[in-house]
Amino acid sequence: MSQQLEAPRAAPDRRASRTATVLVLGAVLVVLDTTVMNVAIGPLSRSMDAALPVIQWVATGYTLAMAAVMPVQAWAVERLGGPRLYYAAVGLFVTGSLLAGLAWNVETLIGARVVQGFGGGLVMPTVMTIALRAARPDTRGRIMAILGIPVLIGPVLGPVLGGWAIDALSWRWIFFVNLPLGLLAVLVARRVLPREAPNPTRRLDVVGLLLLSPGLALLAYGLASIGESGNPLTPTVLGAVGLGAALITGFVLRSRNSPTALVDLDVLRVRAMAAGAGVIALFAAAYFGSMFLAPLYYQVVRGESATIAGLLLIPQALATGLTMQVAGRLIDRVPARRVIAAGLALAAAGFIAFTTQVSAETPYWVLVVALTVAGVGVGATLMPTMTTATRGLADADVPSSTTVLNVINQVAVSFGFAMTSVLLATQLTHKVPQLTGGHVGDAYALPAERLAALAPVIAASIETTFVLPVVLTLGALAVALLLLPRRT
């Protein structure tokens, strides 16, 4: 694997900053879509008169498509060139958004979300590849901080915009809003991004693709099935997870001896990359598991609308996005290990404060402060970890490294959601028999008086479940302290 010498420190990398800034628009699309869905599942279930396990496929289909398409990114970015692949990915995402907004039943909505997922799965790793290739190693922290702006904008606007559209207009507008944003993203990028000559000499690793893409899709499906059923031992879950893991293992074994592997796993031989991947795996599962629980608490336990639930999450999102801007620049000057470890410690403290204080009557300001502290920790962890993992890699290794990190992040998100759902369903099965199989989403159908009576029990179940993000975050902190290089 090639290595790149560190460039001397110099003036700010204006070309790379300009490139990253225009790419933010495309990244915002994907983040907005994800955060909008945090408040949309329950309302979609009611609007389309579909059972929660069925409507959950609106999110599951998107996740499976993203998992299936990500492995081809490293090859496609060389074959087409980064800018061309970016335009194609955004175009595919917008097409899926249009189809979703026009859907006439739940089946067509799920199909449209799959199209969206194919585009969304290519957008983020392609954005990272283009931006990192444009930046010097000593400015990659600043550039990744710019790419973190969607983490500020998306969680702030997504739940609020989605909640407002659902409450005041129609669920269709949570998809239609992507159309003007997508068009703007492509038009601006075409004026700024340099032309990049494609490299058609790299052959597509067809065997690797047939192993890795179905393997990741099956693994994601199995994890999503756990989230739907609350039971990790069903034949569907065991079969999907087992076969998916077997296919992925087959890809890993084969790629070790293949010079044209679909994804070059040799990047994981670099200590910073391997340690960063470990931190991302644990912390992404923790963070996105917590993001599932918080809106659920506000809407089910406290009876708030989707709009209010979104507004209550704004301080956490602002803390994450603003901290990311500071932390991204800081790791260009001080050892990243210190920043990341401090971030994980703050995230754990915020999660612990939330889980020890949450109840059916906790003042909102207490919970908002706890999650805001956690948000500061998130901002000092996610993008700084990805920057640290990729800083010492050569341009030729960037596509594989971004693909690996994004695949790990996607699987971790699915795992975090699945395990959080299992723990919550287990709690509710014993405490709230009115919710069949522990499906908290069924609470939306209960009369208001009955739901108010059950609120303390559901709150206690969420309190217990929130222990999982705490444990996973502490595990990520241990990996960061033990394995991240001290001087990087």
Walk me through what this model shows.
- By secondary structure, this protein is mainly alpha-helical.
- It folds into 2 domains: about 15-190, Growth Hormone, Chain: A (Up-down Bundle), CATH 1.20.1250; about 265-488, MFS general substrate transporter like domains (Growth Hormone, Chain: A), CATH 1.20.1250.20.
- Helix content is about 75%, strand content about 0%.
- The chain is built from 22 helices and no strands.
- Helix 1 (about 15-35) packs parallel to helix 9 (about 150-170).
- The longest helix has about 35 residues, at about 400-430.
Summary tags:
mainly alpha; Growth Hormone, Chain: A; 0% strand; 75% helix; globular; 2 domains; 488 residues
By CATH, the architecture of the largest domain is named Up-down Bundle
**What CATH first level of the largest domain would be assigned?**
Mainly Alpha
State the helix count: 22
- Report the major sheet: none
What gyration radius follows from the Cα positions, in whole Å?
21 Å
Could you name the ranges where pLDDT drops below 50 across 5 or more consecutive residues? 1-11
Question: Averaged pLDDT, please?
Answer: 80
Proportion of strand residues: under 5%
**CATH level 3 topology of the largest domain:** Growth Hormone, Chain: A
Structural class determined from secondary elements: mainly alpha
Question: What string, H for helix and E for strand, traces the elements in order?
Answer: HHHHHHHHHHHHHHHHHHHHHH
The helicity comes to: over 70%
List the domain count as a whole number.
Answer: 2
General shape? globular
Quaternary state of the chains: single chain
Query: What separation lies between the terminal Cα atoms?
Result: 19 Å
| Number of E-type strands | 0
CATH superfamily of the largest domain: MFS general substrate transporter like domains
